[in-house]
Amino acid sequence: MFLIRPSSIVIFFENGKIDNMFWVFVGLMLVWTIMLTDFLLGIRKIPKLEHTVPSQTSELISVIIAAKDEEDSIHETLHTLANQKNVEIEIIAVNDRSNDRTGEIIDEAAALHSSIRTVHINHLPEGWLGKNHALKKGAELAAGAYLLFTDADIQFEEQTLAKALTLMKAEELDHLTAAPDLKARSFALRGLISYFLFGFGYLKRPWTANQKKPRGGMGIGAFQMMNKSCYQKIGGHEAVRFRPDDDLALGQKIKAAGFSQKLVTAKQLLSVEWYPDFKSALQGFEKNAFAGLNYSISLSLFALLGVLISQVLPFIFVFFGSPSVQIISAINILLLFCLYGLTTRSFTNYPWWMIFGLPIFALLFVFMLARALILTWIRGGIEWRGNQYSIKELKQFFRNSEEDHR
Q: Locate the Glycosyltransferase 2-like domain: which residues (predicted)?
């Protein structure tokens, strides 16, 4: 039916079934109204780390970075970390089997800054993803009472760690995770980021991290600070060793174990270039897409169909439907724009007019997800940073890890 031109679709529905389409959009209107209300209530619970006034502290923070082929960004990351103010830190930079100058750059930085320690990994054990293994090896060397896991392409404002530790101590937190400013060079990449955050917001409900209930939870790889005892009690990275979404999985395990957790935004304190180009984004999506949908083919197909129906069809029927369908489609579009706009404003620094690209970004998401699923199916797993991982093993480990924290 979707291969027929829009005018033919309208005629088809007008022959006795247009009412069904109207009620589909009524149902969607109710869903988006609930989600918009949930977002408005939830986003108030996510504070800005920028509002914290830093205080001098003597506790040592061990910053652990996993870096593989990051020669373009690791120098700046180490530089901004080494220049943190009002805080005591050690930086453990783990070179994970890099094929470029990453290891050399880390060694050069360590020679300039006494706070930087270098670890070189040449072998990846079976049953581990590279990044997870590298972070685990770094954590084993950590001397600090607090651990900060971060990525090799993050830039830190000089008061970031002092503000984070001040907030952790003031609110007696076990885990603090922060959402950075996600930079992108092109309109398409910014659209993908904003659309990803839009879907992530209503599916994962990130504000659950700031509720006392053990359900939900959040972890963002750019910034995960926790006390060492919390990390050790949940099993560390051993507990998420085969999870591509290790950051989220770690945060959810911390939450499920009853530790105090908080999510903050830090758009003025942390920044990262999401992906340098569209090709890199496609490759990254291959790794995370299936994991984000719990390795379920049925859930993935439902997501594809759901996006088309809920976020593409209203933009078609607002022009080609009957008057009643056009009106309900317009209401759906208004609700979508409100939720999309609020999400974009809350988690990015992008301009408000990005919302008008929603149907295009939705179609782009459908293409990327379908492509990722097809490639995963053909390969029998995922390829990431030179390694192949079986979908059977990934799916089984996901099931086991989910059962462990229930």
A: 62-234
Specify the DSSP class assigned to residue 54: P
| pTM of the predicted model as reported, rounded to 2 decimal places | 0.87
Answer with the residue of higher pLDDT: 276 or 385.
276
Distance CA 47, CA 4 (A): 48
CA distance 311 to 164: 37
Dihedral, CA of residue 17, residue 21, residue 23 and residue 27, to nearest 10 = 150
Range scoring the smallest mean pLDDT among 95-109, 351-365, 371-385: 371-385
Select from 48, 83, 236 the least CA-distant residue to 158.
83
Determine contact, residues 347/197, Cβ cutoff 8 Å.
Answer: yes
Q: Look at residue 300 in the predicted model and tell me its pLDDT.
A: 82
Give every CB contact of residue 277 below 8 A, 6+ residues apart in sequence. Answer: 185, 186, 189
pLDDT band at 378 (very low <50, low <70, confident <90, very high): confident
* Domains detected in the chain: 49-180+220-273 (3.90.550.10), 278-404 (no CATH)
- What the block records as the tokens of 326 is 């056009």
